[in-house]
Structures are given as C-alpha cells and as structure tokens.
Amino acid sequence: MNPPGTGRMAFENLRRVSRSRNPAAERCELCSAELAPLHCHLLAPQSRVVVCSCDACVVLFTMQQGQNYRRIPRLIRFLGGFVLSDAQWEALNIPINLAFFCRSGTPPRPTAFYPSPAGSVESLLDLESWNEITAKNLGLSKMEDEVEALLINRTTIPHSHYLVPIDECYRLVGLIRTQWRGFSGGKDMWQSIANFFVSLKERAIHSREGSHA
User: Fold this and answer.
1) 133-169: per-residue pLDDT in tens?
2) What is the distance between the alpha carbons of residues 201 and 103, in angstroms, rounded to a whole number?
3) 99 and 161 share one domain
4) 195 with 108, same domain?
5) Could you tell me the pTM of the whole model?
6) Are 100 and 40 contained in the same domain?
7) Among 177, 30, 154, which Cα is nearest to 96's?
8) For residue range 68-93, what is the model confidence (pLDDT) as tens digits?
9) What confidence category does residue 213 fall into, taking pLDDT thresholds of 50, 70 and 90?
10) Does one domain contain both 188 and 101?
11) Percent helix, strand, coil in the chain (nearest 5)?
12) Burial of 32 (C-beta count, 10 Å sphere; 0-12/13-18/19+)
C-alpha cells in the first residue's frame, strides 16, 4: 500500500533500504523491514485491519496529515476498582459473559463486540446503559477512540475488567475462532482463554483510578 502525495517516494525509499536477508523474520506490513519481537501495531479504522509496523512507518503513516492509520498503544490496565452490577451487565444485552467495548465511527460512539466461532459479533449498545457505566467508572474517559477497548471477562469469579489495546481483543477473538470445537467450544479453548487472561494480568499495570461508587 502506498501513501498519497509526497509520502510515496519516502515509502519506496523505506522499502528499498529496509529489506533483510532473513526471510523467516516478521516484517513490517508497510515497507517489509524486519521487525523485532516487540514492535508497533497500526489500525486502519475504516476496515478495522491491524498491521505490524516498524518505527519509521509509524511516523510516516500516522504523523502526516491525511494518513488513515492510528497507532495502537501498548499499555494494559487492570481495572481493580471497576463498578459494574449484574443488572447493568444484563442491560447491555450481551449473550455471553465475555465482550469488549470501544468508541468507533464518525462521530465516535460506543460499540460492543463479543467473540464467537465465526469471529467478533457486533452488538447494538444501549447508550443509556453505557452512560450509566461510564458515570460510575470515570477512568473510561481516558479510553482512546478506535484503538483502545474495555475488555470484560465474566466467565470466572471474580470478574475481571481491563483497558487494553484493541489488538489484544482481536487476538482473543482469533484464539476463540481457531480453537472452537463442538457446541460449547471445548476444554482446550477454555483453557486457552484462561491462559490469555493470566498473561494479560501479568503484563498489566493495576489501577483503581477513576472508579466512583
């Protein structure tokens, strides 16, 4: 994919100078540069596609006017003081106990998604119910449009709540889609989900900021 205007030449220069001799290495999806294991991700909001990116392309494709990518942050927050009653959850009309919520679109509005064997499913979100939750959890005001999400896991006790980069949600959706077996998903898939949340909590900073009873 080439950027419009004067960015085209810079993009082609990046592609030429960044090619590596190691064909097995993970590469930038914009210029083919070899990537380190820990690297940046970008989101194309219109298509909701996530791409791996080198540092140079992050600057080229997000800092220039008119570019259509958003940088996905890396910070994961475990929301230890999150306030959400059973009645509030039921008012959201999510059919399973696992979902993520982000603000997307123009103008941005909250949207709910839940994973399924076929991928993520969008659920219509009652704005009054969502506004009630955000009023009790002021930390959600820091959630960045498009690229961050509130991830809620009510499949275990205690329930857990995270503010995460959107690519973590897509990773969870992909895990469920590829490992689902039978009617209920299968033992291996549920163990993988448990492992996912263990890893998420290990990488998260713990925060009680913004909760308001």
Assistant:
1) 999 998 898 899 999 999 999 999 999 999 999 999 9
2) 23
3) yes
4) yes
5) 0.82
6) no
7) 154
8) 899 999 999 999 999 999 999 998 88
9) very low
10) yes
11) 35, 25, 40
12) middle
Range of the domain at 93: 77-207
Same domain, residue pair 85 and 163:
yes
Peptide bond into 158 cis (omega under 30): yes
Q: With H, G, I as helix, E, B as strand and everything else as coil, classify residue 90.
A: helix
- Residue 19: what pLDDT? 45
Q: Residues 155, 160, 163, 168: is their CA dihedral positive or negative?
A: negative
Residue 189 contacts by C-beta under 8 Å, 6 or more apart in sequence? 175, 176, 179, 180, 181
Q: Which residue has the tokens 């306030």?
A: 83
Contacts 24+ apart (CB under 8 A), 202-207: 203/76, 204/76, 204/77, 204/78, 204/162, 205/75, 205/76, 205/77, 205/78, 206/77, 206/78, 206/80, 207/77, 207/78, 207/79, 207/80, 207/81, 207/139
> Which of 72, 97, 121 is a domain's end point?
72
- What is the DSSP code string of 127-146? HHHHHHHHHHBGGGGGPPTT
Across 82-91, 106-115, 139-148, 204-213, least confident range: 204-213
